[in-house]
Amino acid sequence: MSYEYFRWRPYVPVAQRRENARRTAARLAKKGQILSPVTIEGREIAKSFWGKGWCDHLERYSDFANRLPRGRTYARNGSIFDLQIASGKVTARVSGSEIYEVDISIRPLAPARWKGLVRKCSGKVGSLVELLAGRVSSAVLEILAHPKEGLFPAPRDMTFSCTCPDYADMCKHVAAALYGVGARLDEKPEHFFTLRRVELGELLAGARSGQVLAKAGKNGKGKRLARSEVAGVFGIEIDSDGSASPQAEKAAATAVRGRVLKTKRA
Fold it and tell me: How many domains in the chain?
């Protein structure tokens, strides 16, 4: 491979990168490829428990410290014009000096560790809606997000590759894709369990069959999901008094089963 390949590419302005991405996306679309760009509004890359938890976890590791800032910039400015999440794998196309392809592989969560997490959370997760929205007790969140014993992957659990000439394991394009995962988890938190190759439904072992909405506690003052959040997760209509119609409850229960089955197939 020639020396020219390893020379740093000249800086390409953001506007040009976006145009390059647009042209590439149009060409791929003509070939029948369905792209999934990452769009971030404002300064925050992620806002949900799962999205923020993912980003915060990455930033705990000094191994990643030098590359993450550039990756955040790329993620924020719309350089990720395709990001796909599958079982234990992330693929992305990132527009830089050229169009680069990123592959991220994540090891499955060790079965013993997963069983331990399921055991610790047994009976403490009320519904799939609560879990995906991150609206469970602080004790459960601490179990799931524990730096060493929780669900989030450590650096040794991830391997990276990128078609750019950067020799580092984590280049800025890989870092951008990792932040893109955080943004995507805001939209589809169930992807997190797909990445870790675990069955989401197992954490619901202690929940009542068919329970979807969080129950009010004593005197009706217990924690309850906002109607917009429930509707946002499953696309169902909630009455103005906060209750779900029988039709809505049936639709939500069907959605629960569908998401769990989808996770198992993945």
Answer: 1
